[in-house]
Design brief:
The chain is 83% helix and 0% strand. By secondary structure, it is an all-alpha fold.
Amino acid sequence: RAYVLTEQVSLAVRRGESAEALALSELAVAEADRSEDVDRRGLARAIRARALAMAGEPERASQELLDARLLAADCSVRTRAQLAATAALAAAIRGDLGDALDGFVEAARLHRSHGDLRRAAAIEGNLADSDNRIGAFDAAEGALLESLAASRRVGSRQNEGYVLANLWHARAQLGRIDEALETLADAEAVAGQSSDARLAAWVRFYR
């Protein structure tokens, strides 16, 4: 049941249903604690921390992660990767770019080490966008094109949409407006086929 609840939390986060995600994540943590399975307990806390971060509460997310890290040594590589990725997300939302980059690098390494190429590609998409955030748009475009190719290789349409949206931003900042608008149209097409409300909202914002 704890695993089912964590999957439901992830779905609620993708749909932008923050209140539902937070309520379910609290249940997931309680259910995982009852199981006394260390890996389930760590994963449930990672998922709850993600729900908190995406609801705009990065400080509470960081506190949840402190509790999860006490369990990390006995958790699977998959769960440790989730913890690293969530810590990076919370850091990014707080504006701590250095900590965010370190966390994303570690998360991508861990995901690749246990063969989860889809999640690794998603994390590497976040890394590719980091150049956008410091105004290095030429570098961002190159990194995002590599991430786009990786996302397509592993069939990750959701991540493809995010990468395309970030690629639009890089190209627009470089002054290549027509090319940027074509890229945004591609992102919009992917968003239209996705249940990810955050991706759809992001594309609408850029429009």
